[in-house]
Amino acid sequence: MEHRTFPSPSPGTTTVSSGRPAAEPGPTAGGIPPRTPPRTLRARRRRPAVLAMAVAMVAAGGLGGAVLYNSTGQRIAVLALARDVPKGQAISAEDLVVARIASDPVLRPLGAQERTKAVGLRATGDLRRGALLVKADLTDDPLVEAGQTVVGVATKRTQLPATKLQPGDRVLVVSTPESGQNGSTVRTPETIAVRVVAVGKADTDGSVVVDVAVAPADGTRLAAWVATGKLQIILAPRAGTGAPAPAPAPSGSAA
């Protein structure tokens, strides 16, 4: 039997299925063949960059969340109106609600901690639901001063001004004496300066009962006018309009 020997391939050469040596890449200028890194190595080299970008995005998101949290945390608790409150009415606990707003030096509403102090004070004007409560909206000026009495004045629609009366308004109650047979008046009209304490609801015929605060000496006289129904309620001149507000007339005096 004949035996044949084949030379073993030299290092650096590879064989192919045909038995012929495969061509090697040409040498570089320095005589060293180029080496191409495998794909897995290139993919691994890109991963640190992607990881760094992800870390940066997470940090940016955390910073934005911190800024949003800080801006939200600067809100303050203030008092607002839970419902409409007419002028002159005393503030009750049910009239107030706590609202949280962003701090602003321009806005100066009453803080939520002042809720107890606000309850019991009167509204200086018509307060609307949802409005912030400020110091100028409240007053501790009592409607009924010490020593005064409250008289209910029953009036018809024609005995009241067209302007709706509200608690705190200062008005004049004028007696309207009857005329004599020849057209002359029996007596000179008298006036009493009073302050509106409360205004009742109008009846079907338009009559309204108005509670007014008056000095004790004038209370009985006013009650006598109410019994006769011969009276008229007019708005007193406001301060600063050129005409001073009239003082209560002494008992028994004529205007």
Q: How do the helices and strands follow one another from N- to C-terminus?
A: HEEHEEEEEEHE
Overall radius of gyration: 47 Å
Mean pLDDT: 77
Q: Bin the helical content.
A: 10-25%
Q: Looking at the structure, what is the overall shape?
A: rod-shaped
Number of strands: 9
Strand % is 15-25%
Number of helices: 3
Overview of the molecule:
- The protein contains 3 helices and 9 strands.
- By secondary structure, the chain is of the alpha+beta class.
- The strands form 3 sheets. It has a 5-stranded antiparallel sheet, covered by helices on one side. It has a two-stranded antiparallel sheet with strand order 1-2. The protein has a two-stranded antiparallel sheet with strand order 3-4.
- A hairpin with an 8-residue loop joins strand 7 (191-199) and strand 8 (208-214).
- 15% of the residues are buried.
List keywords for this structure.
SAF domain-containing protein; single chain; 9 strands; disordered C terminus; 255 residues; alpha+beta
Short description:
InterPro entries: SAF. This protein is an alpha+beta fold and 255 residues long. It contains three helices and nine strands; from the N terminus they run H-E-E-H-E-E-E-E-E-E-H-E.
